[in-house]
Design brief:
By secondary structure, the chain is of the alpha/beta class. About 40% of the residues lie in helices and about 20% in strands. Strands 4-3-2-5-6-9-7 form a seven-stranded mixed β-sheet, sandwiched between helices. Strand 3, helix 4 and strand 4 form a beta-alpha-beta unit. Helix 6 packs parallel to helix 8, helix 8 runs antiparallel to helix 9 and helix 11 packs across helix 12.
């Protein structure tokens, strides 16, 4: 008789792990969700239907993958742990619209792999994933900085990281990560996931963050690379003033000081302010001033 239980129930998860003799690797940040209702809520938040293609990162034993496959046109899942490949082949056997790629997503040629594995690449593409805590930011930025036409990302992460990404200027959580993500996407905290619904149980609660791609970047900068260099520099030493951070990043010689002074004046920004008080538009003004004024 066919087993119709959701993969994510505590009993079914335990059964799968026992069947395959699977043990968790702390180095890969493996925490498996054991509450199907949370997974269904993630899929609902992402507004997945049969006209949507989905990329998942870190499918684990396939708990979220299963729920995505029930709604999406096709699902492409990246799994780095070779021990989970046979597990996924077993648990997702009935879902013919799922393909699992055994590869580190950070090293993957996303354009090539989506072209090869999705039947219809003209459909809207969304990233839905329970991201490993230790590598959340690099994975997100990998997608944001790629040329992949990702319409939305609905990702689970440590609540503290979600707070930082969705933070507004003037708050403790606001920083270069907030700016980097909000430059590309509109960020909204969807809901909190308690640590009690995971195996093994992590030390902190998680959050689901919904990121919607902007039609154009939030601000219009002359040089994107230099803009991100500036925003990182502004938060390098959080307790220091913007001026001290800029000197630390760009140099303390007289020529550099003169260039920075002119740039700050043109952008109408007080050098005594701290980076966390500057909005995206103020960083835009300063970055463009720095690009337009010669050293």
């Amino acid at each position: 008789m066919k087993d119709t239980r959701d993969i994510a129930t505590p009993s079914k998860t335990k059964e799968i792990l026992h069947k395959h003799g699977f043990t968790f690797k702390k180095s890969l940040g493996q925490n498996f969700l054991t509450e199907p209702n949370v997974l269904r809520k993630i899929v609902a938040t992402a507004e997945i239907d049969d006209t949507t293609n989905v990329i998942e990162v870190g499918p684990g034993i396939g708990a979220l993958t299963e729920q995505l496959a029930k709604s999406a046109k096709e699902v492409l899942a990246f799994e780095i742990d070779d021990r989970l490949i046979p597990v996924l082949a077993d648990t997702l056997y009935d879902y013919k619209n799922v393909k699992v790629i055994h590869q580190d997503v950070l090293k993957a040629d996303l354009i090539k792999l989506t072209a090869e594995n999705f039947t219809d690449t003209t459909l809207p593409l969304k990233v839905v994933a329970n991201l490993p805590y230790y590598i959340t930011t690099p994975i997100m930025m990998h997608f944001l900085e790629s040329d992949l036409p990702v319409a939305e990302m609905v990702v689970m992460m440590q609540k503290e990281v979600a707070d930082r990404i969705s933070a507004e200027p003037g708050t403790k959580a606001y920083g270069s990560l907030s700016i980097a993500v909000q430059y590309f996407m509109e960020a909204k905290l969807a809901f909190i996931v308690p640590k009690t619904v995971f195996v093994p149980q992590p030390n902190v609660d998680s959050a689901i963050l919904k990121l919607t791609r902007r039609s154009e970047p939030a601000v219009d900068v002359i040089n994107e690379k230099e803009f991100f260099k500036l925003t990182k520099a502004a938060f390098q030493l959080r307790r220091k003033t913007l001026w001290n951070n800029l000197l630390h990043a760009y140099g303390k010689d007289d020529t550099t000081k003169n260039w920075l002074t002119k740039s700050l004046t043109q952008a109408a920004i007080d050098p005594k302010r701290r980076g966390e008080t500057l909005s995206l538009s103020e960083f835009e003004a300063l970055s463009n001033a720095m690009m337009s004024i010669s050293k």
